[in-house]
Amino acid sequence: MSMTADVYDRRQDRRPWLKRLADASEPYLYSAPALILIIVVMLVPLVVGISYAFRDIQLLNPFSGGFIGLEHFETLSKDRAFYTALKNTLWWTGASVFLQFGFGLILALLLDKPFMGRGLVQALVFLPWAVPSFLAGLNWSWLFNPVIGPIPHWLFDLGLMSQPGNILSDPQYAMWGPIIANVWWGIPFFAITLLAALQSIPRDLYEAASIDGASWFQRFWSITLPFLAPTIAITVLLRTVWISNFADLIVVMTGGGPADRTQIVASYIFTQAFKALDFGYASAIALVLLVLLLAYSMLIILLRQTLLNKG
Amino acid sequence: MKTSLLPTIAHRLAILAYVIFALFPLYWLFKVSLTPNDLLYSEGVRMWPSRTTWEHYSFVLQHSAFPTFFKNSLIVSGSTAIIVTICASLSGYALSRFSFRFKYWIVGLMLLTQMFPLVMLVAPIFKILTPLGLTNSLTGLIVVYTAFNVPFATFLMQSFFDGIPKDLEEAAMIDGATKFTAFREIILPLTLPGIAATLGFVFTAAWSELLFALMLINGNNAATFPVGLLTFVSKFSVDFGQMMAAGVLALIPAALFFLLIQRYLVQGLTAGAVKG
């Protein structure tokens, strides 16, 4: 609406002021319940949590609670477990996102082709997404358990293991357990979003390309990929942040062990708060994680701007 | 269109591989839950036990605390889903239909809540809820889950409202209806599928939540399913049959809701992608 129309409206506005007030506050009334909940349950604890990072808060110690400045951060800078967790977070996130995306893209391409029973297949392959994460974690830790699960025996039969053992207790390979569970659980997310993007590509483009004699790979490379690029970029980037914070599978499957080999920063925060009951230190680590994630998001926004300016 | 046989076979085989990979863990869960204890170790890797039994299910349902966990989870997830959907349809409507001064601040705030790691809030929320008597209580969990799910549900509902033409309510208002009457009588009935989808998404999310439930609840009385199952696992880690029977039971409501919302998955995940 243009400026003149606005002015005209206001001059013509003969509503009584009470009615005008009611109209103006209407959207706020609609959003009030949601806003109040978010502010009270998320924003206030966030601020409180940031303040904890500078205080000595231990649940079982009644004398704690004092302001200690940057002491937690000094401890943190010398905390070997934290650096291990940081390294593990990169490995966990990188491998999970890469594999989820790769297998998700292949699945989306397979499902994009019409065939008999596609609806049923789609429901079946997307089912892992609906499995609660704790159950997915338990389920996979049972599959890796030599007493009850088949995987160690298969690996043994293939000659990959000298005896059927549990990889979750093997310091060298333990991280693969949660990663595989995460891939199983996360493929549907990528497959669903990519399939939606695939189905929005106009079909005549492919037909024209086939008439011109383009091979499958040429069509994929010069039609499919460019169309998918924006969806790929946004889902991969957002998923990266989400997975780096996703501690459920690790808490359930390994609890960070053996010897912190699967501890990621998010599960380390949880362990400090839940097991050590050291809320101050947990909040300090959380603050560092928040800063790192913010830096990552800024990087993405900058990258996006440069790419947009180029295009 | 010529169809050659070889690529078709390769395509079907690849699809089959995905279906097997997706279903095998759930199949194994079900298989072990039906295996009698005396066969558990001797027939560990067989695809199907030589005898099956429902005794694990009857034990879990009659002699364990799982029915309580199940009931608690149902109360928490159900209430969360209903309250969130009410709040989110109101706020989603506001974002979809009004333009107002602080709109972008509100959207920004909601996006912000989706960006930071929720695990940050574990300690402060515990500290804040304790003096209020909201730890170890289902009410406390409902409040926390409701707030966590409102932003995403708001974006989801907004996307559903955006899909309804504005002319409909304008016509009703010309006929003398107030905006709220138009919302209630015309818009809400049209968004019923969207409301069902939101209910499903939030229910599943609350049903699966683990970390806050572990932190805020101790003791069996207020334990939700994840907490109960994990306590059970760490206490009786040899009763595999019973644990898996409980696991299968925990899967049922989630799978039901999945079937209900399956049609809306794409819309939900796109709104989810927007939220982060």
TrEMBL record, chain A:
Q: Has keyword Zinc-finger?
A: no
> Where is this protein primarily located?
membrane
Q: Which domain of life is it from?
A: Bacteria
Its membrane topology is listed as: Multi-pass membrane protein
Presence of the UniProt keyword Amino-acid biosynthesis in the record: no
What the entry lists under InterPro entries is as follows: MetI-like, MetI-like_sf
Q: Which cell locations does it reside in?
A: Cell membrane
Protein's name according to its UniProt entry: Multiple sugar transport system permease protein
Q: Which organism is it from?
A: Neorhizobium huautlense
Q: What is the lineage of its organism?
A: Bacteria, Pseudomonadati, Pseudomonadota, Alphaproteobacteria, Hyphomicrobiales
From TrEMBL, chain B:
Q: Which residues form the ABC transmembrane type-1 domain?
A: 70-261
Keyword annotations for this protein, in alphabetical order, are: Cell membrane, Membrane, Sugar transport, Transmembrane, Transmembrane helix, Transport
Record keyword Cell membrane present: yes
Q: Which domain of life is it from?
A: Bacteria
> Key word Ribosomal protein present in the record?
no
Membrane topology according to the record: Multi-pass membrane protein
**Pfam families per UniProt:** BPD_transp_1 (PF00528)
Q: Transmembrane region positions?
A: 12-30, 74-95, 102-126, 138-161, 182-204, 210-233, 245-266
Q: Which InterPro entries match?
A: BP-dep_ABC_trans_perm (IPR050901), MetI-like (IPR000515), MetI-like_sf (IPR035906)
Q: Where in the cell is it found?
A: Cell membrane
The text of the family note is: Belongs to the binding-protein-dependent transport system permease family.
* The name this protein goes by in its record: Multiple sugar transport system permease protein
